[in-house]
UniProtKB/TrEMBL annotation, chain A:
Keywords from the named record: Membrane, Transmembrane, Transmembrane helix
InterPro entries according to UniProt: UPF0014_fam
One annotated Gene Ontology cellular component of this protein: plasma membrane
The organism of origin for this protein: Lysinibacillus halotolerans
Classification via Pfam families: UPF0014 (PF03649)
Membrane topology: Multi-pass membrane protein
Name under which the protein is recorded: Iron export ABC transporter permease subunit FetB
Stated family: Belongs to the UPF0014 family.
Compartment(s) of residence: Membrane
TM ranges: 57-76, 88-111, 117-138, 214-236
UniProtKB/TrEMBL annotation, chain B:
PANTHER family: ABC TRANSPORTER I FAMILY MEMBER 17
Residues in ABC transporter domain copies: 9-239
Any one Gene Ontology molecular-function term assigned to this protein's record: ATP hydrolysis activity
UniProt keyword list: ATP-binding, Nucleotide-binding, Transport
Any one Gene Ontology BP term: phosphate ion transmembrane transport
Family matches, as InterPro entries: AAA+_ATPase, ABC_transporter-like_ATP-bd, ABC_transporter-like_CS, P-loop_NTPase, PstB-like
Organism: Lysinibacillus halotolerans
CDD domains named in the record: ABC_PstB_phosphate_transporter (cd03260)
Name of the protein in its database record: Phosphate ABC transporter ATP-binding protein
Amino acid sequence: MTYTTLSLTLIFVLIPLLLSKTLKLDLEKDTIIATVRSIVQLLAVGYVLKFVFDSEHIIYILLMITLMIGTATLNARKKGKAIKGITWKIALTLIVIEAVTQGILLGFHIVPATAQYIIPISGMLIGNSMVLSILFLNRFTAEIEASRDEVELILSLGGTPKQAIHNQLTNAIRASMIPTIESQKTIELVQLPGMMSGQIIGGADPVQAVQFQLLIIFALLTTAAISSILIGFLSYPTLFNERMQIIKNSISK
Amino acid sequence: MNSLNEIAISFQNVFYEIDDLSILNNITGEFYKGKITTLVGPSGAGKSTLLKMCNGLISPTTGDIFIGDQPIHSYEPTHLRKSVGIALQSAPIIRGTVFHNLSLPFTLQNKKLPEKDAISFLEDVRLDHTFLHRQAEDLSGGQKQKISIARSLLNRPKILLLDEITSALDPTSVNEIEQLILKINQKYGVTMIWITHNIEQAKRIGHYTWIMMEGQLLETGESTILSTSTNERIQQFVNGVQDL
C-alpha cells in the first residue's frame, strides 16, 4: 500500500468527524487527537520494528520486549494502586508469562527464533495479560470490600490470611479467566480474529493463518491462567500485616 | 475491683488512633477470669475496637495488653484467636448449611467435625438437630446469632467476646441468648466481655462493667455502678438510655 492510497483511508476519519459536527456530539477534538496519535505511534512502531527485524539482534529484541512489559505494567498498576508493591508484582507476572510462553514456543521449535515471530507474539500475550491483570485487580478489590465481614470472621476464628481470602481470590481468578475462555468458544463464528485477518489480507494461506491463530488461542489460555493466579498470590499477602490483621485502607481504591 | 479475682485480660495505657483520629485514649483496666464484664457506652465510644484488640484483630497504637500474664503480642495470632473467641453483632454467615458454618473452625484446622458433636453444640444453643442441614442464610436473626455463638465455642475458647449480640433481636430471643450466655459462663467457666447498649441487660447479666465514652474508660466496677455512679456524664448516659 502506498502512502497516497493510505491517505485515502482518512475518509473513514472524515465521516465520523462530519457526523459528530452535524449531530453536535462534541467528539471532533478527541477523534482528531486519536487519529494523529495512532498515525504517529503506529508509524514509529513500524519503523522501529523494521529496524529490529533487519538487525535481528538479540539486544534489540529484548529492548522491545522490555518496552512492552514496562508500558503494560504502567497501564495495569493504576487499578491496584492500593496494593503495596503492585508495580513489581505486575512486572514479574508479565516477565513470567513471557518466559513461559516463549520458552515453550522457541524451546519446542514451534516458531522460528526470529524477531518477526517473537515480537508480535509477545505483544499479543503481554497485552492480553495486562487486560487480565486489570480485570483481576478490579474484581479482587471489589470482592474483598463486599465480604470484609467474612474475611474478618475467618481471621477471628483462628484462620490464616490465605484461608480468610481464599474464596475472594478464587472468585476473582475465575472471573478474570472466564472472558478469555468464553471469547474462544465463539471465535470465528462472529468475527475473524485480528491476527488471522491481517495474515490473510497480507496474502498468507488461510489454513496457515488459522494454524497461527490456534497457536495464539492456546497460548492465551496459559496467559490467562498464569496472569491471574500469579498476581493473585503475589497480591493477597500485602493486604495483611505480620499479626494477621487486615491493613486499613489496603484495599480501598 | 475485686483483688481476689484472677486477671484474664489487662489493658495498660492503651491508645489507638486511625489517621490522627483518637479512637481509644489511655485505657487501663482489667477483665476477670470466669466473670461476665459488660462494656457500655454510646456509639463511637471505642467499645468494638477494644473488643477486637482482645482477639488480636487490631493492635494498639501504643500501650500494652496482657492475656493472663503474657503480652498479647507474644501469642501466635491464630493460637490467640482460638483461645479468645468473638461473636459479632452482624453474626456473619458463610454460604452453606448450618453444619458447614458450625464446622468452620475445624475446617480451618483441616479437621472434620463429627455430626454428633455438631448436634451437641446446637443443643448447647437450644437449637435441635433438624437445623443441622438447613441453609444458614434462611435462618432468622436470632437463630443466626445462636449459630454464631455456637461456632465461636467450637475452639473451646477461654475468653468469649460478644459484640452487641442481642441488639437486633426480639425480647424472646434476647432472653434465650442471655440464658445461654449465663449457662456457658457457668458450665465452662468462660470469661465473657459483652458489649451492650441495654443498661438493664448489663445490670442483669454482668458481674462487672466498664463504662466508656469518646474513647475513654470513665469508670469500672461491679455492675451496680450503673445505678450508683456519682459521675454526672454516666448518670446522664444511663438515664438517657433508660428513657428511650
